[in-house]
Amino acid sequence: MIFTLPNAISLVRIALVPVFLWLLFGRDDPASAGVLIVVVGGTDWVDGYLARRLHQVSEVGKVLDPVADRLAVAAAVIGGWIAGVLPPWFAAAIIAREILVGIGAGVLAARAKARLDVRWFGKVATFALYFAIPAFYVYEGGWPESFRWFAWGIGVPGLILYWYVALLYIGDMRVALRRERAGVSSAGTDPGEAT
């Protein structure tokens, strides 16, 4: 199935990324951009939940959902770095981690025909960053100082946990590749994508 409600939601999330960039750079309105990225990130679970609930899981949806997630994160982090909304070291740490895990997952898929199982801590870290990043945006857009403290308060622990989970994924990749060399199936059981 291609034309499903969950796929439509994923497409709307993807379509909102250029709107986010326009708000940030075209209108120079980081607060509105931050609110929009909360909506895009906050609805991350909606399409997957509806797909399972409505029995509309599709191969297209399995591609669209992570694409929407990655585009939103990339736009928020890279855009925030360029616009001076995010601290450069914070943005660089997120980008480096995404590249590391992305390359590892690509190697794993190519060599072992396996995927990484999603870790619960990865979801927690992603959730924390999904709210820390927009908090930096709205603070830079003129919202109260409390948003900056909130951003630091959940952003730093979220980033530490994000990197901790990356190290766990590296261990998972090494085990899967070792098993592949030994001829043992190493396909993950979780249908989600590593975060």
Structure report:
There is one protein chain. The protein has 195 residues and is mostly helical. It has one domain (5-182): CDP-alcohol phosphotransferase transmembrane (TM) domain (Four Helix Bundle (Hemerythrin (Met), subunit A)), CATH 1.20.120. Helices cover 79% and strands 0% of the residues. It is built from 7 helices and no strands. The protein has helices at 5-26, 30-42, 44-53, 59-83, 88-112, 120-140, 145-182. Helix 1 packs parallel to helix 4, helix 4 (59-83) runs antiparallel to helix 5 (88-112) and helix 5 (88-112) packs parallel to helix 7. The longest helix is centred in the last third of the chain and has 38 residues, at 145-182. It starts with a helix and ends in a 13-residue tail after the last helix. The model has no long low-confidence stretch (mean pLDDT 89).
Secondary-structure topology with pairs:
Elements: H1 5-26, H2 30-42, H3 44-53, H4 59-83, H5 88-112, H6 120-140, H7 145-182
Helix pairs in contact: 1-2, 1-3, 1-4, 2-4, 2-6, 3-4, 4-5, 4-6, 5-7, 6-7
| CATH superfamily descriptor | CDP-alcohol phosphotransferase transmembrane (TM) domain
Provide the CATH topology. Answer: Four Helix Bundle (Hemerythrin (Met), subunit A)
Strand content bin: under 5%
Structural class, from helix and strand content?
mainly alpha
What is the correct CATH architecture? Up-down Bundle
